[in-house]
Amino acid sequence: MIPKNLFIIDLASTKLNDEDVQLLSHPLVAGVILFSRNFANWQQLQMLVQTLRIAVKKPLLIAVDQEGGRVQRFREGFTQLPALQAFNLLSEEVQPHWAKEAGWQMAMEMLALDIDLSFAPVLDLGHECLAIGDRSFSSDPQKVVDLGRAFIHGMQEAGMAATGKHFPGHGSVIADSHKETPIDIRSKKQIFTEDIKPFAELITSNALQAIMPAHVIYPACDDLPASGSSYWLQKILREQLQFEGVIFSDDLGMQGAAYLGSYIERCEKAFNAGCDLLLLCNNRLAVEQVFAEFKLEELSHQNALRQQRLQTLYKHRNNVDFDKLQQSERYRRNKLFLTELQQRWQQFKFEPIIDPTQKH
To answer: What b/e string do you get for 221-260 counting C-beta neighbours within 10 Å, with b at 16 or more?
Structure first.
């Protein structure tokens, strides 16, 4: 059978048009990812999400990258969430508490607008990579485990599933996979003893409902980017680490995925490698081409398993009112502290906010 509910695609603007509705209603579509270009203010965003829910006559997974720091699609009217590295400005004793509160704050704001999922947290190690930088908690694997677990606890308390990224680790290459395919030349031993540790420990404790692999090649292990590698997704992630959740591809429109071939080849290879859901963004013509040419099939039991995994990603909390949320003591306290922390971090770095993942 032809796979159903496979792709996550994007929108061009702040309003939904007939072409959007037609494409989102396609059997291959599972959901939509929102970007800064889809946002004017929270009232408009709420209306856009409501329109999506009504106009598309099937369940849609509505997602966003709302990590904090330089990767935060919605800013005006929302908490200025700190970059994950910013928690290092705090004393060791309070870092887990505020990491948890940041996860809760982010998730509650998104859920209050009926957005199911933010692709978070980043579990990569280190800060040298152009694509990662201060998006990472630390270069210390155990600290990433501890703060990542705290952030996830906050998300899950709010009612949002957690997505660990970018498996098996994007932090040890300099190149930006939005612009090229990075190659990590380290040994297999180093990758497995360091970078994989946060993913492995959080999988073991059932903290992650989804994982997003990297568009990075690790020649010591396999000659394909992890996002299109059955070695990484099947042998390591499914069999060795026994991960049973959703595997997302990262955006297959990124230059890092170009190593896999044309747009249709990228999608087919990522799907065959083991991805449950495929992101294809920022190129509507490519989406239309792929939908016209995608001919792969899957067995009915495989499709059923993917649909079962997909169901775990929808929000687990209903009736969160954004106005009431903003009046709660916990929310107001968090907003003040987290905003101040990000401002302190920006002053500490003396850098403007530049989002490496955003296409406006």
So the answer is: bbebbbbbbbbbbeebbeeebebebbbbbbbbbbebbbbb
